[in-house]
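Hi team,

Below is the intake form for Helix-turn-helix transcriptional regulator from Flavivirga algicola. Please confirm the fields before the structure is written into the shared record.

FORM ID: S-0412
PROTEIN: Helix-turn-helix transcriptional regulator
ORGANISM: Flavivirga algicola
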Amino acid sequence: MTYGKFVWFHFIVFRFSYFYLINEFKYNKKQHIYVFIILIVKAEFRFVKSKDHKYIKAFGKHLRKLRKENNLSQEDLANDADIPINQIGRIERAEINTTLSTMRAISKALNIHITELFDFDK
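The structure came back. Fields below:
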């Protein structure tokens, strides 16, 4: 998706969400501003803004494959790695660019060497 299409899509989704919320819940003018700000903040953090998004997405798919090979749910892996439960899902969906310390904790929980996390094709 090109940048222009991304911005247009983002605007359409944002505008729909804003008008739906305003019409559905009958906010007053002050509350309109709060809803508007909340939607902007949510929209900004919805996508990973990285030039390596394809690599991050491939990493997430590989992590999901490794997790399923070990018959672990996202919750089990998160508990074994001692990280927040939703973080595994966010990594697998390429919503975040995870840290090295998180990758180390995940590799220990999967009982693999950390380099095996990167053994995939882009």
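SUMMARY LINE: The two ends are 18 Å apart (CA to CA).

Thanks, M.
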